[in-house]
Amino acid sequence: MTRLRRLTRLAAVSASALALGLTAAAAADPIKIGSVLAVTGPASFLGDPEEKTLQMYVDQINEAGGVDGRQIELIVYDSGGDPNKARTFATRLIEDDEVSAIIGDSTTGATMAMVPLAQDYEVPMISLAGAVVIIDPVKEYVFKTPHTDRMACEKIFQDMKANGYTKIGMISGTGGFGKSMREQCLDVVGTYDIEVVADETYGPSDADMTPQLTKIKNTDGVQAVINPGFGQGPAIVTRNYRQLGIDVPLYQSHGVASKSFIELAGDAANGVRLPAAALLVADKLPDDDPQKEVVVNYKTTYEEATGEPVSTFGGHAYDALMMLVAAIEKAGSDDPAAIRDALEQTSGFIGTAGEVNMSADDHLGLDVSAFEMLEIQDGDWVIIGEN
To answer: Does the keyword Cell membrane apply (predicted)?
Structure first.
């Protein structure tokens, strides 16, 4: 435990002693939850639905009486996906706002800038970003809700192997998520007897990936292509892919699991395959699927409130908030250490991402089976399952 945290705990003990003489009204002070999200900027397609989701459900919880009779005070800062801003805002949440827990950031790079603060100050943080490095190795005070990039690689390679593909091309973004997923894919691809025979990258500001895709097209033996990345990059890749007439299957990551990708890529998106949460196909799930009620309710609530199509990214925020509220109720306290312990004991939680079972060795609690394998057909998501 850090010296700063020990002093904070001592102060909390003193405050608790003084609280014995306070009125019941003072005992009902709000529970402060902080959030740092990429509400604006290039990753706003992540942060915007996440913020809307948090605000919407915090309002619902408060209207229903709060958590154990206490209202939630949600404090949100917009990082724009910038790691430096994320670190600054996380510091403010902890030192000035004195929050009990943090949800965010939306992106891997910004999340990793916040991780040392959560660890040093011992404040639980639930990330909404995708890279496995966030929770592997396990960090005592850091959790996350989205499926990892490593799991996405595994789900994609399962589908490729089932289709008999043994030689593939890869074109990856060089941002935090794309770089991490590329590394994870290269690490596990051999397990599926698949060889990467072409390996290209593109930068976050690149507007034309034709040169890289031409190299892949001209590589002998390529039977399919995978594109680790998120944001506008994968949409550009997809459009360029069709323009070049590449006739082998294109796989994207769960980082494009929103209607905005289909809108950006247009008709070129048709035929793209990707792993994604069941939320995208909520109404297509069988009635006996344990997730159906949760994802249908969230989808309906979000779309009616915002007038916008649901995305898996808002679902990550829903899962984080609901697990956090359950942890506060289980702990019977808003003490950060007690919340952390309760979060780690999350078991059988059905969220938009799947069934979550955390432990001291697993601060995600999902496995690859939580993914659905989807294909975009006629501008919509279709479950294709296992081949």
So the answer is: no
Q: Give the C-alpha separation, 199 to 174, whole Å.
A: 12
Indicate the average pLDDT of the chain. 92
Domain made up of 149-276+371-383: CATH architecture: 3-Layer(aba) Sandwich (3.40)
Block residue for tokens 């309002």: 59
Q: Do domains 3-8+28-147+295-356 and 149-276+371-383 have the same CATH topology?
A: yes
Every domain of the chain and the residues it spans: 3-8+28-147+295-356, 149-276+371-383
**Full-model pTM:** 0.87
pLDDT digits (tens, 9 = 90+) for 8-37: 444 554 444 444 443 444 458 999 999 999
What confidence tier does 385 reach under pLDDT thresholds 50, 70, 90?
A: low
The CATH H-level superfamily of 3-8+28-147+295-356 is Response regulator (3.40.50.2300)
